[in-house]
């Protein structure tokens, strides 16, 4: 059976451009202090060497805390840093090729933005190649520059009703709209700017968790 890492409420994703000049390692330490169990390293503007160095350290910290560590896009860095897996987009290498590189035990997540992509991902999941999908952007977001228009709740509901692949809702999710996303069926949500741009990350995580607890169906 393919491993499900989305059995947690918050999926935190790094972005040093939005982190109020804090370095990524310090942000990850704050996330771990707040007991976040799923962290993705997503840095679009750093050199490969710097990313590898940071991922080696984050991988170690996550192992120490029992958190799952996913690297965005860079399979090579994921392998070298002994991360738990990678998260890729529709334009990256096919999931089957990445599975070949990573082996059976690692996590592979794939961003999806339409019912067609969800159905393709569902097949990959049933074939034991893919672990989870991202579903978004639910709301408009400035964090991901090359992403399509917001898909709204329509696409989220489609996935809830038609797919068995584990999914994480993403894109423009903030404290003020999180309850609605959960009510539409999302059990795991990824928030980038809302978490990494917070002055006090553990306090922000606590508030987000309270919303999760108050919104469970
Ligand atoms: N992926 P924020 S939207 C990284 O729809 C990412 O696949 C998306 O950032 C997708 O929480 C997104 O700051 C950015 O809106 C989410």
UniProtKB/TrEMBL annotation:
Q: Where does 2-[(2R,5Z)-2-carboxy-4-methylthiazol-5(2H)-ylidene]ethyl phosphate bind?
A: 141-143, 172, 192-193
The Thiamine phosphate synthase/TenI domain covers: 10-195
Per the record, the pathway is: Cofactor biosynthesis; thiamine diphosphate biosynthesis; thiamine phosphate from 4-amino-2-methyl-5-diphosphomethylpyrimidine and 4-methyl-5-(2-phosphoethyl)-thiazole: step 1/1
Needed cofactors, names only, are:
Mg(2+)
- Name the positions where Mg(2+) binds: 73, 92
How the cofactor is bound: the record states:
Binds 1 Mg(2+) ion per subunit.
Q: Does the keyword Ribosomal protein apply?
A: no
Q: Does the keyword Cell cycle apply?
A: no
Query: One GO CC term of this entry?
Result: cytoplasm
The record's section on Pfam families has: TMP-TENI (PF02581)
InterPro entries associated with the record: Aldolase_TIM (IPR013785), ThiamineP_synth_sf (IPR036206), ThiamineP_synth_TenI (IPR022998), TMP_synthase (IPR034291)
> Which Gene3D superfamilies does its entry note?
Aldolase class I
Q: Which GO terms describe its molecular function?
A: magnesium ion binding; thiamine-phosphate diphosphorylase activity
The entry's 4-amino-2-methyl-5-(diphosphooxymethyl)pyrimidine-binding residues are 40-44, 72, 111, 144
Q: Which GO terms describe its biological process?
A: thiamine biosynthetic process; thiamine diphosphate biosynthetic process
Q: Which UniProt keywords apply?
A: Magnesium, Metal-binding, Thiamine biosynthesis, Transferase
Top-rank EC class of the record's enzyme: transferase
Recorded catalytic reaction(s): these are: 4-methyl-5-(2-phosphooxyethyl)-thiazole + 4-amino-2-methyl-5-(diphosphooxymethyl)pyrimidine + H(+) = thiamine phosphate + diphosphate; 2-(2-carboxy-4-methylthiazol-5-yl)ethyl phosphate + 4-amino-2-methyl-5-(diphosphooxymethyl)pyrimidine + 2 H(+) = thiamine phosphate + CO2 + diphosphate; 2-[(2R,5Z)-2-carboxy-4-methylthiazol-5(2H)-ylidene]ethyl phosphate + 4-amino-2-methyl-5-(diphosphooxymethyl)pyrimidine + 2 H(+) = thiamine phosphate + CO2 + diphosphate
Q: What is its EC number?
A: 2.5.1.3
Outline what the protein does. Condenses 4-methyl-5-(beta-hydroxyethyl)thiazole monophosphate (THZ-P) and 2-methyl-4-amino-5-hydroxymethyl pyrimidine pyrophosphate (HMP-PP) to form thiamine monophosphate (TMP).
Q: What protein family does this chain belong to?
A: Belongs to the thiamine-phosphate synthase family.
The protein in question is named Thiamine-phosphate synthase
Source organism = Desulfovibrio litoralis DSM 11393
């Amino acid at each position: 059976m393919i491993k499900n890492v989305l059995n947690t409420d918050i999926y935190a994703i790094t972005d040093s451009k939005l982190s109020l000049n804090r370095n990524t390692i310090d942000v990850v330490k704050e996330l771990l202090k707040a007991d976040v169990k799923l962290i993705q390293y997503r840095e679009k503007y750093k050199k490969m060497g710097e990313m590898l160095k940071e991922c080696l350290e984050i991988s170690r910290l996550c192992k120490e805390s029992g958190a799952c560590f996913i690297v965005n896009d860079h399979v090579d860095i994921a392998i070298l840093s002994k991360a738990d897996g990678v998260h890729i987009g529709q334009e990256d290498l096919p999931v089957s090729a990445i599975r070949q590189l990573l082996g059976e035990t690692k996590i592979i997540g794939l961003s999806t933005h339409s019912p067609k992509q969800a159905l393709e991902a569902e097949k990959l999941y049933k074939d034991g190649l893919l672990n989870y999908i991202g579903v978004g952007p639910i709301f408009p977001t400035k964090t991901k520059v090359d992403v399509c228009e917001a898909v709204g709740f329509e696409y989220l509901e489609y996935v809830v009703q038609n797919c068995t692949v584990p999914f994480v809702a993403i894109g423009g999710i903030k404290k003020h709209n999180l309850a609605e996303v959960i009510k539409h069926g999302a059990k795991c949500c990824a928030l980038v700017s809302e978490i990494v741009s917070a002055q006090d990350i553990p306090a922000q995580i606590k508030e987000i968790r309270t919303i999760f607890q108050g919104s469970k169906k």
